[in-house]
Amino acid sequence: MVGGSFLFPFFNCYTSIMTEQARYDESKITTLSSLEHIRLRTGMYIGRLGDGSHPADGIYILLKEIIDNGIDEFIMGKGQRIDINISGSTARVRDFGRGIPLGKVVDCVSVINTGAKYNDEVFQFSVGLNGVGTKAVNALSEHFMVRSFRDGEYAEAVFSRGTLISENRGKTEKPEKDGTEVEFTPDPEIFNAYHFNMEFVEHRIRNYAYLNAGLTLFLNGVPFRSENGLLDLLSAETGAETIYNIGHFRGNLLECAFTHTNNYGEEYFSFVNGQYTSDGGTHLSAFKEGFLKGIQSFFKKEYRSDDIREGMVGAIAVKIKAPVFESQTKNKLGNSDIRSWIVSGVKDATEDWLHKNPEDAKKLEQKIISNESLRTELNAVKKEAREAAKKISLKIPKLKDCKYHLEDGLMGDSSTIFITEGDSAAGSIVSSRDVLTQAIFSLRGKPENMYGKKKSAIYKNEELYNMMMALGIENDPSGLRYARVVMATDADFDGFHIRNLLMTFFLSYFEELVSSERIFILETPLFRVRNKKETRYCYNEKERDTAVKAFGSAAEVTRFKGLGEINPKEFAQFIGPEMRLVPVALTVLQDVPHVLNFYMGKNTPDRRDYIMQNLISEL
Fold it and tell me: 270-317: per-residue pLDDT in tens?
């Protein structure tokens, strides 16, 4: 009774406060316009925002949405050319298709769910399906201009942040081919301090060319064109590193290509109606199944799928009328009804190519047999390593795990493992980490250089074996337990060397982790500048000098020599929601062997010359 009388006043007070703050009535109901919704919930439409430093950042999605319209015209046999020009923060795209009907120009770029892509007679295999893409670009642009040309006439409209500023219509002053021109400048209020990385744009344009043989795309006047489709794509990605000539098949609805290299793991490129599906989906799994069945049928042997696919590089592109994607950004295909005909088509194409190329078929079978032998050897080494690990501990040494992992839904999507340099650095992170989503694996020092060694060598190296087991990637990179693998090393020569050794490990055996953008580098401040009122953390000398200038003679500067020197209370902010992560990305697969050999292989005269030419004197 005493407890009840004690709590009662607090309960009344709590109820009163909640009633006042959370009153739910008609006044709380809000209706947003479609353009307001796009600006408020930008991630639903274009995924991440970013500043242009990552190929998946929003400004590239805006560019893609506009180019996709030109691609759709080409697929329908209208327009053999698309011009893309980027100058500073403004992009302009001109296609030579049919042009938006002049009376609907404003509606087609500003009214959600308006367009012709619901009509199979007009667009059969469209990338854009929901009538949203161009409208999102409009809503998220500081300046947006659309101009359509049809039969010697034009219609033009100018918008700012989705609001119509002006429109015009009339006859063209000079002859203009039919088509649509769009010019836009992403809104700096949405995309903070952004810039277009032309290397990312060029890579995207190359993919468009590979997927649309016969189409010419001009990027700032430079032409991109492919006559052999996915065959050209794999040639560019693998270079001269293939074990046999690239297999290739192109039909009306299905195109695929495949080859093998001496690298570990698998690498795939999958596309639907010209859209790169970075997370694969039904079409990719059907391609793998069809290739497996084609190999087994041709050689009349029940080779295991992992022996067949080890070292494989493949690509598939399909055209379907009603693709079902998991999100507006279209990263993964979900249609289940397409599996059977893709499996059948890939199986037949694989068998046919092997029959027509007997020498290449022999090399492919030799690769499978070699994979089989390596797997047998690896299994023996695995058994020994596991027995040794059992004797040491039931837990993985040097791993401080978190509660949620990649497979655990929304919380798992935030899971991160920091690979640190020594116990000192690990101590700072352990004291300040989020135990729900942040794990730490501590290295003893510099790991072994694994360049040029068999995968079985991992099992003979206790530290790298433990790290592999901690990540969950022993059998397949898809078993990764964390959404992000973050290399957290000191910003000095030893720290950079450790990063290189770790990257050599991942690129040699688990390249898929890098290509799927799971590997990151943690940026931590080099300097702390403070006075009695304010503290600033600076990541480079320029930021330090700016802070010193702002604080004047009262500035106190501390140089952090290593992560272990940063106070755990201070460190918490550097691995919190605003932590700076630099993604490790691959541009072209064929560059990997050359880069690894140059930096991590034998000390050649070329590397010595490079080091001598790039030495920095600190006298």
Answer: 998 877 887 888 999 999 999 999 999 999 999 999 899 999 999 999
Give the angle subtended at the CA of 444 by the CAs of 399 and 538, to the nearest 5°: 85
Q: Is the Cβ–Cβ distance between 73 and 207 less than 8 Å?
A: no
Non-local CB neighbours of 417 within 8 Å, separated by 6+ positions:
402, 438, 439, 440, 441, 470, 471, 481, 482, 484, 485, 486
Does one domain contain both 108 and 161? yes
Residues for the chain: how many in total?
A: 619
* 484, 536, 574 from 539: Cα distances, Å: 22, 10, 11
Dihedral sign for Cα atoms in the order 217, 223, 229, 235: negative
- Residue ranges of the alpha helices (H) in 358-492? 358-392, 409-412, 422-432, 462-471
Q: Which of 217, 203, 208, 155 is nearest to 182 (CA)?
A: 155
Could you say which DSSP state residue 469 is in?
A: H
Alpha helices in 393-510 (DSSP H): 409-412, 422-432, 462-471, 493-509
* Residues whose CB falls within 8 Å of the CB of residue 130, separated by 6 or more in sequence, listed in order: 113, 328
57 and 153 share one domain:
yes
Which CATH number covers residue 48?
3.30.565.10
274 near 206, Cβ under 8 Å? Answer: no
Place of tokens 């274009």: 46
Which tokens is 323 given?
Answer: 């693709």
> Domain range for residue 578?
396-524+566-609
Prediction pTM value = 0.68
